[in-house]
């Protein structure tokens, strides 16, 4: 039997043990997220907690309406906390220790710095919602997407809300007629002759996020009605880390990619490389009825294609904190693509009684290669202790594209029509320079902010088209002087801007003005010269936002945008690859100006967000592809300023997170468009465009994740409508061995091939077009992540020697 002293000792030991156990399982980490400038709380910021060496978060929550957060039921140990919110740089708090004696850790006010540019680097190491909706921007976090793993930028863009990607790989914001694609804040069209080629080999594992900006501020070029900005990863962990992966599909498509980074005390090296082998095939049908005063006749066309593409991309970056006030960032990008193409066409000529009078068969063989190199350098300097910052950036690029195609045409009947054989050799070279100087500074006790800057863009394009026709009598190729020529294009744009941002007690008001002076000239080797008179354009930009009751946001914006005619639309070189449907550019195009206004509302809950928006725009001198049919039945397609366009759009965006492991997002848009043309009364038309996106992501037990996406778009054009089809994708991922290995299985369009159905109509014709391609596919991906953390333990000096 225990003595009273022994009993008291046992009781005390039990209580201490109980307290230790309680503390070990009841640890708390709390804090409050506020703005660095002004100290306003940030409700619904995303906060994640990790074990010190873990890759995946233990838990992810949002701050409440007062910006506060709290993690409970934590065991003793060392943790790290990550806080992120749209428009602010991500903040990390490392080495937060929970012990039995100190189990309630209050981190106090955690200040998030406002991103001076939404195009700056944002460091991401943890799981974030796949889609984040802001007042005037949507952010798609690529690293959080299962479907994005082991794919390319083109594949990722197909799953971004409000974004559509056509059959040629061109991406655009739904409802916007002119969308620009940026990479790390730089216009990508200056980087390659065909942005689709670059996006098709740019590995998704090297992409941090994609930003959809419907109303870019004055800092960015006035070109386009919206911007898709692809932000690349820069490397973010101390030490050496990266990943390698491979992706294979049942149709023969193959991807291989890898990226790595090393972060030292004040510098960071990052690199990525990828290879893509892609097989594409499909078919199309076109039925055209031609109306003339004395007759009606028909052209039916059946096409098929089979393409093989190979591409590689290599990126290298260096980021150096010279000192606490200076930073230098250098990056290079090189990509190369090659393609082999073969296709066949059958052209049926039918008379008014719908009787076939001629049948022409055409076979086409082609090959091409594209090489592109970009050098980019950015220097930033903190000019004073109040937060003034100067940034200088320069981008140099060079690009070459060579393409060779042969067209073999023969008539099945009547037999008296001669065959033709044609060869086209097309060489395109692009060179460009972009320079920008930006300065921003907080004023009035850091409540407000001023920004101003200068920019210069230079672009040169040389297009050499050489066409030969085979002479069957002499058995030799003869130069076609009418089609062979060289096109030389130069563009210089000098810009300046200034803006002021006012913030106080939930109000945010930003006004800016950008001026751009444009000088363009181009000519042909045939002696034709085109001089466009230099012109000055002003682009005002105004936005006002009111955040109230800590969970609602009301905003309005106004801006003016421009769509400048580029070389592909201006080049008068004739393309007769399809001799019944020839095309060429129009050197007399004028720029198109658009006035656009948005009113948005945002409601944010602990587990949901809803951000509807109404947009109204008026465009004059709209640049559209326009087609006419000649009395001989040959159609000519070119560009023109077809008239004016008025558009009102409703966008509904939402995000729902019933648990920390399930996220659903949806987007719906409906656009009423009204065309008015002085060129052609057949272009005067009204119509609706509409589209929807639905996404679901789930973190399942046993380190498994699932994601699905469904998209649909249906849009009107100047001469008809592009009837959309449903695009779907599903994927599941399983992680192994402490998340270092992962396997992903995904499928695209499992319910059938992607179909496209369009109608085009003019004064004397109506055409219906149907096409489909091999979009249905099943893919298997294997990915390995490696990390080697560099020790940062302080050196302990030896004890002093005894005298």
Automatic annotation (TrEMBL):
Q: Domain of life, per the record?
A: Bacteria
What InterPro entries has UniProt attached to this entry?
Answer: Beta-barrel_TonB_sf, CarboxyPept-like_regulatory, OMP_b-brl_3, Plug_dom_sf
Q: Which Gene3D superfamilies match?
A: Carboxypeptidase-like, regulatory domain, TonB-dependent receptor, beta-barrel domain, TonB-dependent receptor, plug domain
Q: Where does the UniProt annotation locate this protein?
A: Cell outer membrane
Which residue range or ranges hold the Outer membrane protein beta-barrel domain? 383-784
Q: Which residues form the signal peptide?
A: 1-23
Q: Which UniProt keywords apply?
A: Cell outer membrane, Membrane, Receptor, Signal
SUPFAM superfamilies listed in its UniProt record = Carboxypeptidase regulatory domain-like, Porins
Q: What is its main location?
A: membrane
Any one GO cellular component localisation term in the record: cell outer membrane
Q: Which Pfam families match?
A: CarboxypepD_reg (PF13620), OMP_b-brl_3 (PF14905)
Q: What is this protein called?
A: TonB-dependent receptor
Species: Pedobacter cryotolerans
């Amino acid at each position: 039997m225990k003595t009273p002293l022994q009993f008291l000792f046992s009781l005390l030991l039990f209580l201490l043990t109980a307290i230790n156990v309680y503390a070990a399982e009841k640890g708390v980490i709390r804090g409050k997220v506020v703005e660095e400038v002004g100290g306003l709380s940030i409700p619904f910021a995303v906060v994640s907690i990790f074990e010190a060496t873990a890759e995946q978060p233990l838990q992810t929550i949002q701050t409440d309406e007062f910006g506060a957060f709290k993690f409970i039921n934590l065991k003793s140990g060392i943790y790290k906390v990550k806080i992120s919110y749209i428009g602010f740089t991500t903040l990390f708090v490392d080495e937060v220790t929970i012990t039995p004696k100190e189990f309630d850790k209050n981190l106090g006010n955690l200040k998030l710095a406002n991103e001076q540019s939404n195009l700056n680097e944002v460091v991401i190491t943890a799981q974030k919602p796949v889609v984040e909706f802001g007042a005037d921007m949507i952010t798609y976090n690529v690293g959080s997407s299962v479907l994005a793993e082991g794919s390319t930028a083109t594949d990722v863009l197909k799953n971004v809300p409000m974004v559509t990607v056509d059959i040629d790989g061109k991406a655009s914001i739904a409802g916007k007629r002119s969308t620009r694609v940026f990479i790390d804040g730089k216009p990508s069209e200056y980087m390659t002759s065909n942005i689709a080629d670059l996006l098709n080999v740019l590995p998704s594992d090297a992409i941090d996020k994609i930003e959809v900006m419907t109303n870019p501020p004055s800092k960015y070029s006035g070109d386009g009605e919206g911007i898709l900005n692809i932000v690349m990863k820069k490397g973010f962990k101390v030490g050496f880390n990266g990943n390698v992966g491979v992706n294979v599909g049942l149709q023969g498509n193959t991807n291989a990619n890898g990226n790595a980074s090393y972060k030292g005390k004040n510098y960071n090296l990052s690199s990525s490389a990828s290879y893509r082998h892609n097989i594409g095939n499909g078919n199309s049908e076109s039925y055209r009825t031609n109306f003339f005063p004395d007759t009606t006749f028909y052209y039916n066309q059946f096409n098929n294609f089979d393409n093989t593409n190979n591409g590689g991309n290599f990126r290298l970056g260096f980021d150096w904190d010279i000192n606490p006030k200076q930073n230098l960032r250098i990056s290079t990008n090189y990509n190369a693509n090659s393609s082999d193409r073969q296709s066949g066409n059958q052209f049926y000529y039918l008379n008014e009684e719908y009787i076939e009078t001629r049948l022409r068969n055409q076979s086409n063989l082609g090959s091409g290669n594209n090489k592109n190199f970009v050098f980019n350098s950015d220097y930033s300097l903190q000019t004073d202790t109040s937060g003034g910052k100067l940034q200088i950036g320069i981008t140099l690029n060079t690009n070459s594209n060579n393409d060779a195609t042969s067209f073999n045409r023969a008539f099945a009947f009547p037999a008296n029509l001669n065959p033709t054989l044609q060869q086209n050799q097309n060489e395109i070279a692009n060179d460009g320079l972009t320079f920008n100087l930006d300065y921003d500074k907080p004023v009035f006790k850091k409540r407000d902010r001023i920004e101003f800057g200068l920019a210069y863009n230079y672009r040169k394009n040389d297009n050499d088209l050489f066409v030969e026709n085979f002479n069957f009598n002499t058995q030799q190729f003869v130069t076609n002087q009418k089609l062979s020529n060289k096109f030389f294009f130069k563009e210089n744009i000098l810009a300046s801007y200034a803006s002021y941002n006012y913030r106080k007690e939930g109000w945010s008001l930003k006004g800016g003005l950008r001026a751009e002076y444009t000088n363009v000239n181009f000519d042909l080797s045939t002696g034709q010269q085109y001089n466009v008179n230099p012109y000055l354009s002003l682009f005002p930009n105004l936005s006002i936002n009111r955040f109230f009751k800590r969970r609602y946001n009301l905003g309005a914006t106004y801006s003016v945008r421009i769509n400048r005619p580029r070389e592909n639309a201006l080049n008068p070189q004739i393309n007769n690859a399809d001799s019944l449907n020839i095309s060429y550019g129009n050197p007399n195009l004028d720029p198109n100006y658009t006035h656009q206004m948005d009113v948005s509302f945002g409601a944010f809950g602990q587990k949901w967000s809803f951000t509807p928006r109404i947009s109204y725009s008026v465009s004059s001198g709209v640049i559209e592809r326009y087609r006419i049919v000649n009395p001989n039945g040959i159609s000519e397609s070119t560009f023109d300023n077809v008239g004016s366009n008025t558009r009102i759009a409703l966008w509904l965006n939402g995000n729902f997170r019933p648990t920390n492991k399930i996220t659903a997002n949806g987007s719906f848009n409906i656009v009423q468009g009204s065309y008015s043309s002085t060129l052609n009364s057949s272009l005067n038309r009204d119509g609706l465009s509409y589209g929807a996106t639905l996404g679901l992501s789930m973190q399942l037990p046993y380190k498994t994740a699932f994601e699905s996406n469904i998209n649909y778009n249906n849009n009107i054009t100047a001469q008809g409508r592009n009837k959309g089809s449903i695009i779907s994708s599903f994927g599941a991922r399983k992680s192994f061995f402490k998340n270092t290995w992962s396997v992903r299985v995904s499928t695209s369009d499992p319910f059938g091939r992607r179909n496209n159905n369009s109608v085009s109509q003019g004064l004397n014709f109506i055409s219906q077009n149907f096409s489909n391609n091999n979009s249905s596919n099943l893919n298997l991906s294997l990915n390995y992540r490696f990390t080697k953390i560099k020790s940062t333990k302080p050196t302990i000096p030896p004890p002093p020697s005894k005298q």
